[in-house]
Amino acid sequence: MRVFESPQELQQYITEEKRKGKTVGFVPTMGFLHEGHLSLLRAVRPDVDILVMSIFVNPLQFAPSEDLKTYPRDIAKDQAMVEKEGVDILFLPSDESMYPSGYSTYVGEIELSQRWCGKSRPGHFRGVTTVVLKLFNIVQPDISVFGEKDYQQAKVIAKMASDLNLPVTIRTCPIVREPDGLAMSSRNSYLTSEQRQAALALTNSLDYAINEFRKGVRQGNYLIQAMCLYIQTQDNVKLDYVACVDKDTLSPKEHVDVGDRLLVAAYVGETRLIDNKPLTLE
Ligand code: AMP
Prior knowledge:
Blueprint: E1 2-4, H1 7-19, E2 24-29, H2 35-44, E3 50-55, H3 75-84, E4 89-91, H4 95-98, H5 117-120, H6 124-139, E5 143-147, H7 151-163, E6 169-173, H8 193-198, H9 200-214, H10 220-232, E7 237-245, E8 261-268, E9 271-278
Helix pairs in contact: 6-7, 9-10
This protein binds adenosine monophosphate.
């Protein structure tokens, strides 16, 4: 596995490899890797010649009040994990190499990004689309893979790729969960054991609403209410939002059907967690 820190050097290397006809798969991450990240690598490894993972805690997508400074990091451990997955290139750019002084160009998707997490975290998706477009220009992937864990993010990136005619296929992968159902997340490492238990309220509230759907409930508002009530009864959990949305437009659904998506965001202590599931009949 080769490690690159310089965007210019990586871009040049990939350009040469692509000229030889090599295909490139790309998994962007913020590191502190877990099985969820590894599942994205496994989903593309067989389909490409060169597999690239980036680890970059992107300052642009954090608000001043958020956890940029404390975001968990362990590059040595991450490096050992991805080496085992057959990653060819690990890209570890510095903040300065991505945003040198005087940096002044941003890209924003302005429809899907306004909703849900976009409302709670103003500027977040602009930071995400800006860094992902930069990374795409450096890595030049044929296929890039994102997790449904960040469902809205995956939709925003797919929309950017389509709107801007980017020559990349966006692939999405299902959420990898802990045995008890908690969606894996680097931020779970912030949780005390008591909070770790409380965090189950997110996945459990989704299951509760899906169960109501399976019993015949079709009113989106009823499902939202059920999830809100479920979460509000849990100690140590503060609801951010609950939504019942069309799986593509992310607009709220009044009358729900199979395939629509439930989204939830909540604070457990200081830690903001997100989760989502599709409405299914079994
Ligand atoms: P992050 O490092 O949190 O920015 O995540 C990097 C990529 O991994 C994103 O595409 C996430 O959606 C994806 N990811 C994070 N957690 C999971 C998970 N539990 N299951 C599947 N994908 C995940």
